[in-house]
What we know:
Blueprint: E1 3-6, H1 26-32, E2 36-42, H2 58-64, E3 72-74, E4 80-82, E5 85-89, E6 96-101, E7 106-108, E8 114-117, H3 120-131, H4 133-136, H5 142-147, H6 151-159, H7 163-167, H8 176-180, E9 183-187, E10 190-194, H9 202-205, H10 216-222, H11 224-228, E11 241-247, E12 251-256, E13 270-276, H12 279-287, E14 293-295, H13 298-305, E15 317-318, E16 325-330, H14 343-349, H15 352-361, H16 365-368, H17 398-406, H18 421-437, E17 444-451, H19 455-472, E18 477-484, H20 488-493, E19 500-506, H21 513-516, H22 527-533, H23 545-562, H24 568-584, E20 588-592, E21 597-600, H25 631-642
Parallel strand pairs: 2-13, 17-18
Antiparallel strand pairs: 1-19, 3-4, 5-6, 6-10, 7-8, 9-10, 11-12, 12-13, 14-21, 15-21, 16-19, 16-20
Helix pairs in contact: 15-18, 17-24, 23-24
Amino acid sequence: MGTSNNATDTNSEKAESETGTETETGEESSANEIKDLVIPRLSTRELQTFNVLYSQMASDFENLCNLVDPLLELDPHGELAPCIAEEWGTEDGGKTWTFNLRDNSKWVDVNGEEKANVTAWDFATGLEWVLNFHKNDSANTSMPIEMIEGASEYYEYTKTLSKEEAYALTAGEGSKFMEMVGVEIPDDYTLIYHCIEPKPYFDTVATYACLYPMSQAMVDELGVDGVRGMNNENMWYNGCYTMTTYVQNNEKIFTKNPTYWDEDAQLFDTVTVKMVESNDVAFQLYQSGELDYVDLTESNLKTISGDENNPYYDQLVERPADKYSYQIHFNFDKRKEDGSVDTNWNTAIANEAFRLSWYYGLDLSEYYKRFNTINPMSCENNYFTMKGLVYTSDGTDYTELVHQELGLPELNGEKQVRLDAEKAEQYKQQAIEELTALGVTFPVEVDYYIAASNQTSLDSATVFGQALSNSLGDDYVKLNIKTYVSSERTEVFDPKLHSITIRGWGADYGDPQNYLGQEMYGYDNAFYVQDYNYVKDVEETEATKDLLDTYKEFTKMVEEANKIYDDLDARYAAYAKAEAYMIQHGLVIPAYYNVPWCLTKINVYSKMNAMFGAQNEKMKNWETNSNGYTTEEMKAIVEEYNK
Length: 643
C-alpha cells in the first residue's frame, strides 16, 4: 500500500522527495559542512513502528529508511541506483529479475557492533514475513501478491494455519516459502524474483518496504513477537545510521553506522530530530540557532517576505514539490454520528452533476496560499498522479498525457485552468433539479474532520470552507468543520462520518498502476475504495447506478492498461485515458501540490528524488552550509541542476 497524508497537516509534516546537484567545492565548502545536523519534525509525525516491513506511513519511512537499506535506492535526479544490489536486470522483458548483491553489507546492533553479513536470504526472510498473515497483519502484501509467482498462494496458505504454526515458518532452504513462492537464491549473493507476468517496472518495487530485508538470526534472537514490538535498542541495522537515542514525542538521535558499506557516502556524524508542536515553534528554534532547517508557516513567510530589512529576507528558499499528489476524496457511503445512513449526502454525491459542479466551480487559489503564499499557483494540481513519476520514450511526463486527454489549456500561473464558471453553474442547476426530485434538501451539509486543538488544521479548513462558499454558494453546500481527539481512523473513517477528506498519495513504485489501482472497484487492495470513499459498500439503486457503472468502467480501463507491458508508451497512453475518465466524471477532485518555503542549511536539491519507494528522507550525500543558503545561492543551484 502507499503512503497517505492529510492535507490539513501542512508543510513539514509530509515526506519530501527532493533533488540535488554539486555546488561548492574545496576548503571553504568543507569548512562550512555540518557534521552534527539538527532538524525538526512535527509531533504528529511520531514513529508508529520500528519494523519497516509493517509500515505504510511516510512518518515511519522518513526515519526507518536511514536504519535499513533495501536492494536499490534513488539518486538526486530520481534515477535508480545501486544499494545492497550492485547490479540488476531482466533478460525476458520483466518476467524474471536478477539482483546481484554486494558482499560487504553488515547487520549491526545499535552500538554498531557487527551481527552478521547481509545476504540474499535476508530478502527472502523479509518477503516471508510480509506474506505471513500472522506475522505482519497483512501489511504491504498488495504488490508481492499482484506481482510475484506464488505470493498470493503462500499468503492464503498462512491464513489456514494457527498463529503458532505460522510463527514457526521461515524462508530457509527447503522451506514451504521457497517451495511455493517465486524466489530463487542460487548463492548467498544472488537473488532472483519470478513475476506472474512481465513487470517492466519491477525494479522500482525494490525501493519500497515490501522488499526490504530482515535477518532470520534477528528473528531467532528476539522471537516473532519481539520483532513485532522491537525498538531502536534491540533491532538490527544495515543502513546509514543507527538510532542511538529515542525519546518518544521528544527527540531521536541518529549516529553514523561505522560499518556502512558505502565508504564514499557523505554522512553526518549525528542527526538529532527534535519533535515540535508546530512550525512556529520550529521557527523560534531556528532563530536561536538550535535547528538547521525549518518550513515556514503562511504567517512567518508573509512577515519575512514583506520586510526587506528582515534578517531572513534574502534566505527564503522555495522547496521542490513533495512527492504527493493531493485530492479531495468523497465518501459515497456516509453515516451520521448515531450510525444511521446520511441519505441526503449519499444521494447528492452519487449524482455526477453535483460532483462536476465542484470540479468546474471550486476555486482553490486562496487555499493554495496556505502552502505557498508567495507563489500560490505553483500548487495547482489537475491530476490524480504526481508529476515526475514516469516519462514516455521521448521524455514527456505522464501527467502531460493526462492533461491532453482532459483537454485543458496550458497553465497560466494566474487561475486554475479547469475552472469554468458557465459549466459550474450549469451542473449546479442540473444537480439541484435532479436531486430535489430525489428528496435531497439544500444546502447539502459537508462534514469535514480535523484534529482537535490543531490551529494549523483549523486555519486551513476555514480557508477551504470559504473557498467552497465563495465558489458554489451557501445555498448549495455548507462545510461543517468537525474534530477528532486522537485517532482519525477509529473516530472518523471506520464509522464513515466524513463527507470528504483531502489526502495525498506518494507512489510505492514507478508505474501509474500504483496510483490508479487505489481507486479500482472490486479490489481488496484498492486503498481509497477500501478505507476512505467506501464505494464498495454502496448498494445499487436508481440513484447510485450511474456512479457504480462509472466506477466499473474506470476499473475496466485500468485493467486493460495494466495488460500492456511490452510497449511502455502505449501503456502510459492507456492509463492517461483511464485517469482522465476518472477526473472528468468527478470520482475524485485533484486538489494541490505541496510547494512550501523554508529556511535551510541543507541543500534541498541534494536529497534523493524519490518519486516512488520509501527513501525520501534518507540522510545520505546531503550537502550543507552552516551559514545557511541564500535565495540567490539556491537559484543558482536550481539552474545548475536543471541543466
